């Protein structure tokens, strides 16, 4: 006969606990005793249940799944996980909003994070993207300023539309991204109904050491579907965790969301002479110039078992690049290579890569040792070079080949201007050539609604000018809506 009794409660050291209900006291009514280690462990552990929330992308949800290669990309990259059609790699993805705190509502207007960890045979590859193909700024020195303008004021602790429009209208490179944010794509119906973009330009290198520039687009197989502004606001009051619930319940009922991976490939030499800087994160590569090719499919099929262990402690970093994939002269990407691992060391601790969700599914042979919460043993010798059989880098096989030539004086300057390097052109073509009449109508009312709330008349004047430069018709409609026209 099987024992149907529940297991005995224990301390975290595995020692059987004396009671689930009563602390140790001197007589039933007496004072509590310091030697009640079980009570003290419970209270002390509880006080330490939270780690600092992410300074951006705090609220999110995640799922496990796989990525499968569907086309031969070996002419472009030697990345092992992309090396043959049909090859599958385990992935973990985290979706998120950007500006809100851990308990904030899912359906607010915001870009959405779309961060993927591929557990490859050459270590973990992280593609830390968003649901937009571009970004608000192109130089990392403006990143914290941008985020400060989106979060809470120092004095009132309130978010402030005036601060947001003040920053945006003084940063014209933001127009393309703000256009998408203010469109209905700023309020996706679910995480399943949005695309994910690597956004940055990356480098691919093949076995012959030939280099290419690449952009990634994960296209939703569920179809794009967005809330209107009014619908998104209504859902906030009904279910602040709407997106989290939608993803978990869809996977639970066996409805597995999937995305098709398309890439755009630019020959290495084209970058030098292309009509605008292809590393500028505020611009897309028009499909007419570099047509997308479908190379894979990602499917999410398993919910996390422990939200904290798997989602809250998941640490994605654009610096995790595997052989065959490299970075590029995109200044935002180069800044992120530092800032992501830095925030993980602060938020989770220096050994965050040893946690089950973050650790690679291949052996680690690094020369790093010690630090808070290390539990994987380091092995002697703990230095290189050594004569005791420690790991050795295979430079002939893995030497740096995702490189580009750089030369020049040290300067603090914008990218060297090119013919089509303006801030408003691509936003204008999205508004005029891609959006439908309904998209444009909603865009105007979303902008007007947002810029009507606590925005000064001086900043509103700049808002109109900003959109007029994107498109005169858009500027006129915003002016009319704000009553400044
Ligand atoms: P295309 O007509 O070839 O592509 C337009 C792209 O826009 C498609 O990828 C489409 O893909 C996406 N799109 C459609 N509706 C919207 C919308 N309301 N908001 C945001 N994106 C939308 O044109 P081009 O490649 O020449 O690009 C024209 C403009 O389209 C660009 O200036 C840019 O603003 C926008 N765009 C371009 C992308 C690119 O990588 N080239 C990617 C996304 C947007 P889907 O509906 O599947 O997202």
UniProtKB/TrEMBL annotation:
One of its GO terms (biological process) is response to hydrogen peroxide. The active site is at residues 57, 130. Coiled coil: none annotated. Heme binds at residue 340. GO terms for cellular component: cytoplasm. It catalyses: 2 H2O2 = O2 + 2 H2O. Pfam families: Catalase, Catalase-rel. Its EC number is 1.11.1.6. Residues 1-27 are annotated as: Disordered. Its cofactor is heme. GO terms for molecular function: catalase activity; heme binding; metal ion binding. Belongs to the catalase family. This is Catalase.
């Amino acid at each position: 006969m099987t024992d149907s009794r529940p297991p005995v409660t224990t301390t975290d050291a595995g020692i059987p606990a004396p009671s689930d209900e009563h602390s140790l006291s001197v007589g039933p009514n007496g004072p509590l005793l310091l030697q009640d280690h079980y009570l003290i462990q419970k209270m002390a552990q509880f006080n330490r249940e939270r780690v600092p929330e992410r300074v951006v992308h705090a609220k999110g949800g995640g799922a496990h799944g796989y990525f499968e290669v569907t086309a031969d990309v070996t002419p472009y990259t030697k990345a092992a996980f992309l090396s043959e059609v049909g090859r599958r790699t385990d992935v973990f993805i985290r979706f998120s909003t950007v500006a809100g705190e851990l308990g904030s509502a899912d359906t607010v207007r915001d870009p959405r994070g779309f961060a993927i960890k591929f557990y490859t045979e050459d270590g973990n590859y992280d593609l830390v993207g968003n649901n937009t193909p571009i970004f608000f700024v192109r130089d990392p020195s403006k990143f914290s300023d941008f985020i400060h303008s989106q979060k809470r004021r120092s004095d009132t602790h309130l978010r402030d539309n005036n601060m947001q429009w003040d920053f945006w209208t003084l940063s014209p490179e933001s127009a393309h991204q703000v256009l998408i944010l203010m469109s209905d794509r700023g309020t996706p119906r679910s995480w399943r109904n949005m695309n994910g973009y690597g956004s940055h330009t990356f480098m691919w290198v093949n076995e012959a050491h030939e280099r290419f520039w690449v952009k990634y687009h994960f296209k939703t197989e569920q179809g794009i579907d967005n809330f209107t502004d009014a619908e998104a606001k209504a859902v906030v009051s009904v279910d602040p965790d709407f997106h989290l619930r939608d993803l978990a319940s869809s996977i639970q009922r066996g409805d597995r969301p999937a995305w098709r991976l398309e890439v755009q490939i630019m020959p290495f030499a084209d970058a030098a002479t292309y009509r605008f800087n292809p590393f500028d994160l505020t611009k897309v590569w028009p499909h007419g110039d570099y047509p997308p090719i479908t190379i894979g499919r990602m499917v999410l099929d398993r919910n996390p078992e422990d939200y904290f262990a798997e989602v809250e402690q998941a640490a994605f970093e654009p610096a995790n690049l595997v052989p065959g994939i490299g970075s590029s002269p995109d200044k935002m990407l180069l800044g992120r290579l530092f800032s992501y691992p830095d925030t993980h060391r602060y938020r989770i601790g220096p050994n965050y890569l040893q946690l089950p969700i973050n650790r690679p599914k291949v052996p680690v042979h690094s020369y790093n040792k010690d630090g808070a919460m290390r539990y994987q043993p380091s092995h002697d010798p703990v230095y290189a070079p050594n004569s005791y059989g420690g790991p050795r880098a295979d430079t002939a096989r893995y030497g740096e080949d995702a490189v580009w030539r750089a030369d020049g004086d040290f300067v603090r300057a914008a990218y060297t201007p090119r013919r089509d390097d303006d801030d408003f052109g691509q936003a204008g073509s999205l508004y005029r050539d891609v959006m439908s009449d309904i998209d444009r109508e909603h865009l105007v009312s979303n902008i007007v609604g947002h810029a009507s709330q606590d925005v000064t008349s001086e900043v509103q004047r700049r808002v109109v000018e900003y959109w007029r430069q994107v498109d005169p018709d858009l500027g006129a409609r915003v002016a009319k809506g704000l009553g400044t026209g």
